[in-house]
């Protein structure tokens, strides 16, 4: 059993581990140490020189209000419309639900309830599998609580238990993570109804509930797990097993993953940092001051990227700024229109994936034009499939990369695709993140490359380059924070088209370029940082916005209204 050490200066109890089944899911870039810390609800993070965790008062979970409304419907026989009205209104500890999230919540509740519960009885209190030890084990733990997220049901006689997992999208054909299913089924099969403590008393033990439903405490003969799409109401049976087979499977593939998760000492900075209470003292997180040019630590700590900035402010020279768009995308509301994944966007992802596979399968070997996929039929790379209409264009873009493949240089060593970089800007208390299309080491210096696909092979003028492609501006500011000589490092833009490729280079040590980069990044972040309302701004851009279905911005104003734009 691996030994896990709490962070220096922390306090509180360490004898309780509470873990949800989702923790068993194998996630390559999950921060192991945060997962292990979070599984110990009695631990308090040490204080540090930086502000502690500041939660956003707005709802951050896209199914949070829907779950509350379903609780009222299923456990208190409240009509759905009344339940929604009660849940979406302002409360003492939070404002009224954002209008876009409220619109999605109404759809989610309606679609979840549409098919009924198939003669099942809702179980009011969740099943929790509790293991109590007579003495602390090697982890110093005496009590283990295993939980699962979802909506629990039982048959009238208690012989069958079902867990329904709401999903905020259409259901995928992808098989679920087997370790996560094994851990979830174990809780459903052998857990008993418990009352989990609220967030203010999370460090306390879950309390057993003597009477829940007539047969809610009876252990079942059969367990089923289903996914339910809150977008279209479709359902999928994920698992159906007897307790005996569930126990055997859990010991084989569920328990080892949970054991590793609660014992991990690996720090991996990334999106896990956003709500992590260890940010002020994390030894692996890079810190800087002034990256965004903002001095204000009063706002909730959030993650920001160029994607967030563009989503909020729109593209340069276009009247398409909309705070609601960025906020609703941050909530991961579903895109039923498919606007966010047009054929050209899918083609671009596939081109990136194909090049990545070439680099990773043949490290050190320069790409050749003939390595491109067959252009006469649809082709796939990673999880992306290019349509027949886009196949030739995409194939020629892949072939064009050969001209500027980093492995053409004999001095290139380390090369990584989709590498996430994250820096804590302490002056703004914002976690700034960037995902480099390609990050490689040329001799002693790092090179940050952004790759764009463009059917017309357009490239910005050097004078407009950082504003047109702000990812390059952020890269310029990040380069000095990498462990390399900034005077020899460079930032590259590779543009791939069906007729060739172009490479543009930015010198991050150039003071004029650095000043321009600081202004570009500041302009994209400053209004977002202070905005706590995320109001919609209707315009022509609503026509192609993936969030328009939920945004419901109301009457247009300004030029768009004058032109008679219809949404």
Automatic annotation (TrEMBL):
Keyword ATP-binding: yes
Alphabetical keyword list: ATP-binding, DNA damage, DNA repair, Helicase, Hydrolase, Nucleotide-binding
Residue stretches making up the PD-(D/E)XK endonuclease-like domain: 326-552
UniProt protein name: PD-(D/E)XK nuclease family protein
Species, as recorded: Kitasatospora purpeofusca
Organism placement in taxonomy: Bacteria, Bacillati, Actinomycetota, Actinomycetes, Kitasatosporales
